Input
Amino acid sequence: MSESNTSQAGVTKLYGSDSNETLQREAFLNGEIPVAVYGLGKMGLPLASVFAETCGNVIGADINPEVVATIQSGNSHIKREPGLGDLVEKLVTSNDLRATKEPREAVQSASVHVVIVPTPITDEKEPDLAILDAVVSDIATGLDEGDLVLIECTVPPKTTEERVFEQLKSESSLSEGEFGVAFCPERTSSGRALKDIRGAYPKVVGGVDAESTRAASIIYSEVNSEGVLEVSDATTAEAIKVFEGVYRDVNIALANELAQFTDELGIDVREAIEVANTQPFCNIHDPGPGVGGHCIPYYPYFLIKPFDAPSPLLSTARSVNDSMPEFTVSKVCEGLQTGGIDVENATVVIFGLTYRPGVEEIRASPSIPISRELTQLGADVYGVDPVLETFEAFSVEPITIEDMYQLDIDAVVLVTPHNEFELIRWNELETSENGPFVVIDGRATLDDMNLWCYTIGSGANN
Output
C-alpha cells in the first residue's frame, strides 16, 4: 500500500490512484477510516447516524452546543423522524457516534469529511454560501493527504469545483491530486430520512476527478442499498440535485395556474389533471395554496441568480407559486361575501401552519403570508397546528383543536392536512349557532362538507 493511502497512524485512506479497493472497503466497514459529519440538523443527524451504523466510527460537528449536548446524552433533537431517536441512543451508547461543538476537533480525527450544512437565500434571492465556506476553512486546517471531502448540501452548480476545491487547495498544505472532493447530494425528505439515506433512491456521486468519484462510490455503495449513480463530474451532480427541485417547482406552478381556470371553465381541474395523467407522457402535480419547505422555493435561485443564461420559466414558476397565498385569501374573502360578512369583521382559523403534514418545518410555508394578509385585512386570525410549539412566524393567535369549538368562526382555511385534523368534529361546528359557513380547502382533503366549501382546483361545492 502506498504512503498516499495510509495516514501517519497507519489508517487506510480512500483517495489514491493505486488504491486497493477491497482493502479500502473493508477498512471503511471496520471503522478504520474515521468519518466526520459537519452539520447535525434535520438531515445531518440522520446522515451521521446511518454512517455510524455502517462503519462504527463517526464524529458529528455542530456549532450549536445544545444540539451537541443532546446527542452526547444519547438523544435526538430532531422530532417526528421515525427510528432516529432509538438509533442515536444505540450508537452513542456503543460509541459508534459522538458529537462535538468544535468542527476543527472533528477535522483532526477524521479522514472522510461529509458536509451537510444549510445554504440559505438572502433577501436579494442570492444563495448564501457563508456557512459552507466556514466549514471548508475548518476542514482545510486538518486536511491530510489521502483525505476525502464529500459535499451533500445543495449548492449552485460549479460550487464544488470552483469554490470548495479551490478553497481547500488554497487554505491547506495540499495540492491537486493529493486529496479528493466529490459532490454527493442528499435526496432525503423529512419524516423518512433514515429510509431515504439507507436506500430509497440510488446515491448520485460526482467528483472533481475520477479518483474522487471512485473513492466516494466505495462509501456510498455500502451506505445505500440501492447503489450509486456515478456521473461525469461534481458540477453534473450539483445540477442533478437542483434540477430535481426545479422540476417540481415548475410542475406545481403549472398545476396552480391551471387551478385558477376552475371557476371560469366551470370544471373540476383536479379531475381533469387526474385523468390527463393516465396518459404516459403527462405527469401534472397537484395544485395548492403555495409551495413551502427548505428546498423547492429556493433551488430555482441557484440557477437564476449566479448565471447569465436566461431563465424566464423558472422565474415565472416562482411568481405563480408565490401568488397562491394571495389567491387563497381572495377565495376566503369571496366566501365570506356570500354570507354578507366583510373580512375585517371575520374570525378566521387556519388549519396547518407547517409546510407539510407531520413535519415540524415552517420555512416558506404558505400559512405565513396567508395569515399576514388576512390580519392586514382586519380579520381575527387563529392558527391550529398540533406539531408546532412556537408560532412567532405567523400572524395568528395559536389555539388547539378543542379551543376551536369555543370560537364563533366565520371561515376555516385548510393549508396543511395533518393527520390530527381527521379527528375534527365538523358536525359540531356545522350545527353550532355561529359555526363556520366558509371553508377553503387548499389540499382537497375535506369530503362531504355541508358548508360553503371552496377547494383550490375543484371550485365551490354549490
User: Anything to note?
Assistant: The two ends are 77 Å apart (CA to CA). The chain has three domains: 6-232, 243-317, 320-460. DSSP finds 17 helices and 15 strands in the chain. The chain has a mean pLDDT of 94.
